[in-house]
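S.,

As promised, the heme C run. Input:
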Amino acid sequence: MSAMLLTINANAIELRGSHKANHVACKSCHTKGMKQAGTMEGCLSCHQSYEAVRALTEGKTDLEVNPHIDGHMGELDCTECHHIHKPSKAVCNECHGFDFVTP
Ligand code: HEC
Ligand code: HEC
Ligand code: HEC
Ligand code: HEC
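Predicted complex:
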């Protein structure tokens, strides 16, 4: 019974959006092995740098602040806001009410 549940959980690990469309390999993000969460080092192997992602959201007039970053929390780990296998959630909104839709 528990073995069956484990199988179901393993199958539930999925990608979405561009990572799914681009068939991003598990280990591109799981740079410390599959028993650890994906790392920012993994993210930056494709997304380059904070400057690069900042440029993507800079100048979007519908954004009150640039999440990458106009804050006072420094350069946060990408996965503080972007989750990969579960819905994302900008950490800023633990305190603020920014109208972010976090992909
Ligand atoms: C193997 C390359 C690769 C890795 C590793 C990777 N990404 Fe991506 N990501 C992409 C591509 C390609 C896109 C599509 C947009 C683009 O062309 O830049 C994308 C898009 C995104 C988007 C926009 C939403 C979407 O689905 O289009 C977010 C957010 C994102 N990545 C976050 C992350 C985070 C966080 C990590 C690390 C946990 C990560 N990515 C690791 C290649 C990668
Ligand atoms: C403080 C939360 C936060 C952190 C940390 C963060 N992001 Fe984001 N990111 C967002 C939000 C919110 C958006 C959506 C902005 C919008 O509405 O256009 C976004 C959008 C993106 C996009 C899509 C940009 C586009 O083309 O529209 C990519 C790619 C991305 N983030 C990658 C990253 C990567 C890589 C890191 C780490 C270097 C990172 N983000 C760190 C909150 C965050
Ligand atoms: C784009 C980056 C990325 C890719 C590709 C990726 N992962 Fe992950 N994975 C993460 C991150 C980040 C976490 C931490 C939880 C989260 O953000 O969803 C995680 C968490 C996990 C976990 C722990 C689940 C939990 O409860 O937190 C497992 C298991 C896992 N990934 C398996 C996989 C497998 C299998 C693949 C390939 C099919 C894969 N991952 C591809 C980034 C990635
Ligand atoms: C733990 C709570 C907390 C978190 C998380 C947090 N902030 Fe703040 N932030 C504050 C407080 C408190 C102030 C001061 C509010 C004031 O002076 O009115 C502030 C002020 C600001 C301001 C200047 C005042 C304003 O509202 O225009 C900006 C911009 C800002 N935060 C952005 C961010 C961003 C972006 C993030 C996520 C990366 C973030 N904050 C995360 C608590 C937080």
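The chain has one domain: 2-94. The chain has five helices and no strands.

- D.
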